[in-house]
Design a protein that fits this description.
Strand content: 25-35%
Radius of gyration: 20 Å
Mean pLDDT: 95
Order of helices and strands: EEEHEEEHHEEEHHEEEHEEE
Strand order of the largest sheet: 1-2-3-8
Shape: globular
Number of domains: 3
Number of strands: 15
Length: about 250
């Protein structure tokens, strides 16, 4: 008789959502056909906030890393003192783009500073980290909830909506770069990406739209049938900007 899980599973594109009665939020994993049946026929419980199944080796985050990087890599790095870091500090988010190996002490330090600062400052500057497994590169994405202005090559001011930074370096350096962005912005009200381990960047300007006094206090406005989010009035904010899959360093 087939094994039946006590969880509820749904697939949305390449994302598996996992829920169970009594859980306050969903868990997420990355879909792949070769392991989905195994994952979805076992029951996942919560242990210290981590989705866990003892039969499948423990935490869902470690299960995912074993499937994507291999059991030998997971075992070897564990023996060398590495843990699996949730890049956004959400233990329920076990998508492969949110997981990376990090030395234990560095993981603790990240939890004490970057994870706390990112959460505290998200309503001003929404800084997120991702890894694109297909390229091996990392991305730091920034949603500008504060009014961020940059100057272009001719000195003209540009109002910025989002910034995406591509990094082709060690994950620890990416963590330190994200810390530097938040630290500099909190201390000086501005930040520079010139000295970061950045090999490319993509900047999206805010839409220049004239708003009435009434519209300035609304969550959304409509133009030609298209809804636009109004940022900066306390009604809406950018929580996290997703990464761009397949983005490679220049020349590759």
């Amino acid at each position: 008789m087939p094994r039946k899980s006590k969880n509820k599973f749904n697939i949305h594109g390449d994302i598996i959502s996992i829920m169970r009665e009594g859980w306050e939020q969903m868990a997420f994993a990355t879909y792949r056909e070769d392991y989905y049946e195994e994952l979805s026929t076992h029951t996942w419980t919560l242990s210290n906030g981590y989705p866990t199944n003892a039969t499948l080796g423990g935490g869902l985050h470690r299960y995912m890393m074993a499937k994507w990087y291999g059991d030998d890599v997971l075992r070897d790095l564990t023996e060398k003192g590495y843990v699996v870091d949730h890049m956004n500090n959400d233990h329920m988010d076990c998508r492969i783009s949110n997981l990376e190996f990090l030395k234990y002490n560095r993981n603790v330090a990240k939890g004490q500073y970057l994870d706390k600062e990112a959460k505290q400052m998200r309503y001003r500057l929404a800084v997120s980290l991702f890894k694109d497994f297909s390229t091996g590169c990392y991305q730091i994405t920034i949603g500008c909830n504060d009014h961020i202005v940059a100057k272009d090559s001719v000195g003209q001011e540009r109002h910025i909506n989002t910034i995406k930074i591509l990094c082709n370096c060690d994950y620890l350096l990416v963590v330190l770069d994200a810390e530097a962005i938040l630290t500099e912005y909190e201390a000086a009200g501005k930040f520079s990406i010139a000295n970061l381990h950045c090999c490319d960047k993509r900047i999206e300007e805010a839409i220049d739209m004239k708003l009435t006094d009434e519209e300035k206090n609304q969550a959304f406005v409509i133009r030609d049938g298209v809804p636009y989010m109004v940022i900066g009035n306390g009604k809406n904010f950018l929580n996290s900007i997703n990464y761009e899959k397949g983005w490679l360093p220049p020349g590759k």
